[in-house]
Write a structure and sequence with these properties.
The complex is a heterodimer of chains A (300) and B (304). Chain A is an all-alpha fold. Chain A is built from 12 helices and 2 strands. The longest helix of chain A is centred in the N-terminal third of the chain and has 41 residues. Chain B is flat. Chain B is mostly helical and 304 residues long. The chains are: A mainly alpha (300), B mainly alpha (304). Chains A and B meet through helix 1, helix 3, helix 4, helix 5 and helix 7 of A and helix 1, helix 3, helix 5, helix 6 and helix 7 of B.
């Protein structure tokens, strides 16, 4: 095909560039088609079937979904997940924002403290679950301290539902807040000092400066972290698997825990896929809300 | 730490000793302000010390428990009479533990290497080459970021089962090679490189592979290093996918092994020794690359 005329050379150069581009993208594209696009399509398709372990497939239409919406376990697990998110998200927002505000005002040692506060983020949820199971145990250090002040042993992981969900949320906050704290800190460092100084000269006290100046300026970052942590909250699984096994009496039976049970204990793959699609819908809505409000701002 | 902080703090107000010293002689109001700042700083250090201690305490407890003699009444009611490495030695002799550790190393390291290599190639093409369907490829890859891994868990498992990949390391690794965040971040980085570099390479007659290896790879080292750290940590700490695919010891990772140990009746020092070992690589990475990790989170928002 190689011609000596100018337009021909031009075309062949373009063709060569395209060839190289396709060649370089091909390995990734094959991986994505096989292990991302195909499973995503598969998840949708499977949720409409009864899919048995031996590979027998039976088309059900929306039966899995109608079954899901009549399944007491599903509503239970959705309630558990929402309850968990309701505790986890405000808690991690408060802790990470509080930590960032303190670090931001610190003149010396801020690197040291930043590092110390960040270290738990490196651990796995499994590691976090193991150590906090020990801390929360009936004869553990926390109950030891509570008993010493006369508050009696508290059943952190086997007591009342809100207590169990709260205890699980504490573990995730401990493990996860370092990341959000750094995002907040970057947002705070990006704010100009002049605005706050102006407010200071105008006579605003610390609380007023925080509420009327610092936080409004930080709004995009706060929203960004809020969405991310909410998505993470909906995906809670590891700590539950390690610490409570969904119990006591389904008190911590989250959506993903139910998906795991339905999929890999009862091998009801189609039904489990329907649960996965519900999670996808939740995450998608959250992502779209974030994108809608903060297009371009969030990835700065 | 607080005491040290305070004594140094009183010498240098707000880390600016000379300025503060000069100001002290000039205006009394500035002196007053500096004093107040100094007091605030002392409070901040005190509060942060308390918070840091409570954050670090659980990790210190793991280390102390891991090094405590077996069978001795120890934390929380007593400190161990002596520290010993016998728990760590013992856990290594528990038949399957070294296998779990090895699986975790393979799962993390092999994934990192392949992901970074294939994602760099794709990112280079997506950033610098024109070809039909380029934007479609880019945006369909980025769009997968919105799909949580759990939503595709079942189909991915069935796919791997269909390929006879259950309980194998390659079955564990393959699906994780589709890392949209890596492709996206590296592409952004390559896109921002100056065009002149690539023109110069072309004029020098460098072929595509040569350009890729001699120019692109060295220049994108910062973003590769960042991704290497995070992809390693995600894989090392991952539970759900390895739990589903690594059902027997042949492909069981350390995280999954730890979770199973925790449900069995294993003594506290043993499980803490195992947990401690699992944390060492993460800690070592952090100690050496702390600044790098912090900088990359704050600039690009890498999230696992």
């Amino acid at each position: 095909m190689s011609t000596t005329t100018a337009p021909g050379r031009f075309a062949s150069r373009h063709r060569k560039e395209a060839m190289v581009g396709i060649l370089f993208v091909l390995p990734t594209l094959i991986i994505f088609v096989l292990f991302k696009f195909l499973p995503i399509a598969g998840a949708g398709a499977m949720s409409l079937t009864r899919y048995r372990l031996n590979g027998d497939v039976e088309f059900l239409g929306v039966d899995n979904y109608t079954r899901l919406f009549q399944d007491a376990n599903f509503w239970q697990s959705l309630g558990v997940t929402l309850g968990y998110v309701a505790i986890f998200v405000p808690l991690i927002m408060a802790v990470s924002l509080g930590g960032a505000l303190l670090l931001n005002k610190l003149v010396r040692y801020s690197g040291t403290f930043r590092a110390l506060l960040f270290v738990p983020y490196l651990s796995s949820f499994v590691l976090a679950g193991i150590i906090w199971t020990w801390i929360f145990a009936v004869d553990g250090p926390l109950n030891g301290a509570l008993t010493a002040v006369g508050a009696g042993p508290v059943l952190f992981l086997s007591g009342e539902q809100w207590l169990v969900l709260g205890s699980l949320a504490v573990v995730s906050v401990w493990k996860g807040f370092g990341y959000s704290m750094l995002i907040f800190l970057a947002g705070l460092k990006a704010q100009s000092v002049e605005v706050e100084e102006a407010a200071n000269i105008d006579g605003a006290n610390v609380g007023q400066r925080l509420w009327f100046v610092t936080l409004p300026l930080l709004k995009p970052v706060i929203f960004f972290v809020l969405v991310i942590e909410t998505i993470i909250g909906f995906q809670v699984f590891d700590t539950i698997y390690v610490m409570t096994g969904g119990g006591p009496a389904h008190a911590s039976y989250s959506l993903i825990y139910m998906l795991f049970d339905v999929g890999f204990k009862f091998f009801d793959f189609g039904y489990a896929s329907a649960i996965g699609l519900v999670l996808f819908a939740i995450v998608l809505i959250l992502s779209l809300v974030q994108r809608y409000f903060f297009e371009g701002k969030a990835d700065q | 730490m607080t005491q040290l902080a305070e004594s140094e703090e009183s010498q240098r107000v707000g880390g600016l000793p000379t300025q503060a010293g000069k100001q002290r002689n000039i205006r009394p109001t500035v002196k007053l302000k500096a004093k107040r700042q100094q007091r605030t700083q002392r409070w901040l250090v005190a509060v942060l010390t308390v918070i840091s201690i409570s954050t670090i305490a659980p990790l210190v407890a793991i280390i102390v428990l891991a090094l405590s003699p077996e069978g001795e009444p120890t934390l929380p009611y007593a400190l161990p009479s002596s520290l010993t490495f016998e728990n760590i030695v013992r856990i290594f002799n528990v038949g399957t533990f070294p296998r779990w550790l090895w699986n975790s190393v393979v799962y993390s390291v092999v994934s990192v290497v392949i992901v970074l290599f294939t994602a760099s190639m794709a990112a280079y093409a997506l950033a610098r080459k024109r070809f039909p369907g380029r934007n479609l490829v880019l945006w369909s890859i980025v769009a997968t970021l919105m799909v949580p891994m759990q939503a595709t868990l079942i189909p991915t498992f069935i796919l791997i089962a269909g390929m006879d990949g259950v309980n194998t390391l390659w079955g564990l690794i393959l699906p994780t090679l589709a890392n949209a965040q890596a492709v996206f971040l590296i592409r952004q980085f390559i896109r921002d490189l100056p065009d002149e570099l690539f023109d110069a390479a072309k004029i020098d007659g460098a072929g595509e592979w040569r350009t890729f290896f001699a120019i692109v790879i060295p220049l994108i080292k910062p973003v590769l290093a960042t991704l290497a750290i995070f992809v390693f940590l995600w894989h090392w700490n991952d539970l759900l996918w390895p739990l589903v695919v690594g059902q027997s010891d042949a492909a069981r990772t350390l995280t999954v092994g730890l979770a199973t140990l925790n449900t069995e009746t294993v003594s506290t020092p043993s499980i803490m020794a195992a947990a401690f070992i699992s944390f060492i690589p993460c800690l070592v990475i952090f100690i050496f690359l702390q600044r790098h990790i912090v900088a990359s989170i704050t600039s690009s928002g890498v999230k696992g």
